[in-house]
């Protein structure tokens, strides 16, 4: 579901404009709309015209109506939501108070108004409009000192965290600072994964890098998971897949990413 606009005041009264983009969104719309709400959308209306000679013609016109909802019917096979109610706004084709049925379909915007949005309806809006709910693939694209934690949906790649830090160079006989910097960098990536990857949704986590950075990080992450009892990582260890990437691959992914 695409959220076009949201205008809800501090008293939880107002409206939201939404565009259903897939079949499941129509089910969410069915659960959001209740009797007594106002609904605004485009529709087709038959209009009779009488000429000077007395002949009558019927034409179909597209117009925008706002109705007060009285009945709701969900056609699951046709993926159409039919909402019946009385027209409550001036319209050149439909009289005030006249009945009309609005057909809500995929990719057709509608505006839903409520006197009071309860927490259940607001939570449903948040859930169905959150693209990460449809991101069943995650990726950690990294090199030493730089990493992107991404969630990948069917339509876009979302960068949820960018971790960038200076790691001291390795010097002969003085590797301690380098190792400490690397561990701090790895710890930041682990925290980003724990914060942003929803393992109840995500089916696979790609860990990609040129060279052996990915392998070193993977070993460190699960050693820390055992040490600090990160159960969510240990329970989902099988979902992590190591991938060798070139710089070209990283640039390609970065070009497709949308920063939130």
Automatic annotation (TrEMBL):
Residues 1-130 form the eRF1/Pelota-like N-terminal domain. Pfam families: eRF1_2, Pelota_N. It comes from the Eukaryota. PANTHER family: PELOTA, PROTEIN PELOTA HOMOLOG. This is eRF1/Pelota-like N-terminal domain-containing protein. It comes from Sinanodonta woodiana.
């Amino acid at each position: 579901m695409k959220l076009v606009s949201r205008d809800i005041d501090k008293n939880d009264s107002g409206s939201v404009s939404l565009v259903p983009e897939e079949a499941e969104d129509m089910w969410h719309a069915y659960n959001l709309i209740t009797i007594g709400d106002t609904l605004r959308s485009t529709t087709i209306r038959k209009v009779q015209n009488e000429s000077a000679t007395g002949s009558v013609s019927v034409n179909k016109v597209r117009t925008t109506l706002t109705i007060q909802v009285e009945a709701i019917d969900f056609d699951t096979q046709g993926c159409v939501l039919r909402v019946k109610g009385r027209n409550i706004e001036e319209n050149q084709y439909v009289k005030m108070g006249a009945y009309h049925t609005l057909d809500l379909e995929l990719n057709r915007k509608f505006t839903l108004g409520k006197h009071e949005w309860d927490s259940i309806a607001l939570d449903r809006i948040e859930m169905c409009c959150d693209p990460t709910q449809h991101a069943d693939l995650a990726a950690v694209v990294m090199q030493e000192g730089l990493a992107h934690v991404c969630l990948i949906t069917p339509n876009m790649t979302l960068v949820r965290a960018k971790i960038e830090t200076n790691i001291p160079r390795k010097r002969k006989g003085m590797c301690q600072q380098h190792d400490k910097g690397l561990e701090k960098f790895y710890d930041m990536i682990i925290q980003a994964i724990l914060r942003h990857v929803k393992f109840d949704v995500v089916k696979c986590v790609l860990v990609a890098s040129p060279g052996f950075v990915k392998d070193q990080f993977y070993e460190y992450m699960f050693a820390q998971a055992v040490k600090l009892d990160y159960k969510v990582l240990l329970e989902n260890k099988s979902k992590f897949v190591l991938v060798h990437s070139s710089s070209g691959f990283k640039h390609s992914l970065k070009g497709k990413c949308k920063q939130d």
